[in-house]
């Protein structure tokens, strides 16, 4: 997992909240008019402003979509794994938020606010800017903000006063950090502390970030306990099997093996329901049998991973959502979907744009702007090929011959992998459609 550091550095960090708010107001006005900024905005803020300008968001009011109804709000609360770590989030942040005259907010991966708690007076002020349970605070709706921008860049973010793109939010300061599901890396949402800009302190971002990591640790422990239970079921079953077999949980994490050594601890699984043998990148053709909490994968003799989709298949790279990306393979042997990490989404997008292939040095330039980082690229490609198998070829790195790839991209090029600073991705955002 990539370590993410709070994005709160730069010359403004040394100023008082009031001084930085006044300077940011001048900088924002210059940015809106495409004029010269007296100081460069922090990179995470400047990049967010650029996205909002390209989207044409109203800089005074943003957008005002309908908040969730009570029934839909309750449904989302029941379905999210964030509910499992509510006690952790409350114990880490709520007392500090109330003492500082702030509020604690928990939003899902779409930017919908699920829970708000904290200082009663500030909660009443929050009602005036639609900072309420059920409201939508994704970047494309509310502009640059702790909630929306942390979701967009998948990293902790502090947004102070006039750093907010929408002027109605300038009296506020907020700090937010994302929370991920340990089972599949999926973004669950963000935890945020918001309050009056005049009483905000920069160190709140470190507190929010630490609490989010604590919650992720609790989710990781819960998953470890689930895997341990599945191992107890798998051990006697695998002991009776002659041949190759793997037991995985519903998310593809390996709980037990016999006769085979998968190259990864987690395997991409086909979409349910299973109808006959399926082809998996790491194992080849498999028969899939249900188990309590997972699946038994029996490797079929004579079908190797290399005999999989090469020459006969279709890939769909889905990067429409700003926070979730997936690669789906469809072919004669079946269909599987692999949820992608941020780096994997970048790599596959670049390869889709260059069907002739890219060398390690070229990919290093595409991803980092530095062709000397070829070793880093080779390591990343080795991991990716271990996950998706023969759909990728090398020398040069490319989509395998005969495998067609299509890209499902967002309606607005400005939100194509909005977290990414990879030069190749930045360039692709300049095209009307990809």
Rounded to the nearest angstrom, the distance between the terminal CA atoms is 29 Å
Shape: globular
What is CATH's topology name of the largest domain? Answer: Beta-Lactamase
Helix content range of the residues, please? 25-40%
Strand share of the residues?
15-25%
Corresponding CATH architecture of the largest domain: 2-Layer Sandwich
Number of strands: 17
- Give the helix tally: 12
Largest sheet: 5 strands, antiparallel
Strand/helix succession: HHHHEEHHHEEEHEEEEEEEEEHHHEEEH
From the alpha-carbon coordinates, what is the Rg to the nearest angstrom? 23 Å
Low-confidence stretches: 1-9, 303-311
Main structural class: alpha+beta
Mean pLDDT, all residues: 85
CATH class of the largest domain: Alpha Beta
Biggest sheet strand order reads 2-1-5-4-3
Number of domains: 3
CATH homologous superfamily grouping of the largest domain: GAF domain
């Amino acid at each position: 997992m990539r370590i993410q550091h709070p994005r709160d550095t730069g010359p403004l960090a040394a100023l008082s909240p009031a001084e930085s708010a006044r300077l940011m107001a001048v900088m924002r006005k210059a940015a809106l008019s495409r004029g010269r900024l007296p100081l460069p905005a922090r990179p995470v803020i400047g990049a967010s402003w650029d996205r909002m300008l390209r989207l044409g968001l109203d800089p005074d009011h943003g957008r005002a979509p309908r908040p969730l109804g009570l029934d839909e709000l309750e449904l989302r609360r029941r379905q999210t794994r964030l509910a499992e770590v509510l006690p952790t989030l409350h114990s880490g942040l709520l007392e500090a938020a109330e003492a500082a005259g702030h509020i604690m907010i928990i939003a899902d991966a779409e930017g919908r606010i699920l829970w708000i708690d904290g200082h009663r007076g500030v909660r009443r002020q929050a009602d005036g800017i639609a900072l309420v349970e059920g409201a939508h605070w994704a970047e494309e709706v509310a502009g640059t903000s702790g909630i929306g921008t942390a979701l967009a860049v998948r990293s902790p973010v502090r947004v102070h006063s006039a750093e907010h793109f929408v002027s109605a939010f300038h009296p506020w300061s907020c700090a937010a950090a994302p929370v991920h599901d340990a089972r599949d890396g999926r973004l669950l949402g963000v935890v945020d502390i918001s309050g009056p800009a005049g009483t905000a302190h920069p160190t709140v971002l470190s507190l929010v970030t630490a609490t989010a990591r604590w919650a992720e640790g609790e989710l990781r422990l819960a998953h470890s306990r689930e895997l341990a239970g599945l191992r107890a079921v798998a051990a006697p079953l695998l002991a009776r099997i002659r041949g190759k077999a793997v037991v995985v949980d519903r998310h593809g994490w390996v709980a037990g093996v016999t006769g085979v050594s998968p190259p990864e601890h987690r395997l991409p699984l086909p979409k349910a329901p299973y109808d006959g043998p399926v082809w998996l990148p790491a194992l080849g053709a498999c028969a899939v049998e249900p188990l309590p909490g997972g699946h038994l994968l029996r490797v079929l003799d004579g079908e190797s991973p290399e005999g999989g989709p090469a020459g006969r298949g279709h890939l769909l790279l889905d990067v429409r959502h700003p926070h979730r990306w997936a690669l789906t393979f469809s072919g004669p042997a079946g269909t599987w979907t692999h949820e992608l990490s941020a780096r994997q989404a970048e790599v596959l997008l670049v390869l889709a744009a260059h069907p002739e292939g890219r060398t390690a040095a070229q990919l290093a330039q595409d991803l980092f702007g530095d062709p000397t980082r070829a070793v880093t690229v080779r390591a990343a490609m080795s991991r990716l090929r271990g996950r998706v198998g023969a759909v990728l070829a090398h020398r040069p790195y490319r989509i395998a011959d005969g495998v067609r790839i299509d890209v499902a991209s967002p309606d607005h090029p400005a939100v194509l992998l909005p977290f990414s600073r990879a030069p190749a991705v930045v360039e692709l955002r300049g095209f009307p459609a990809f």
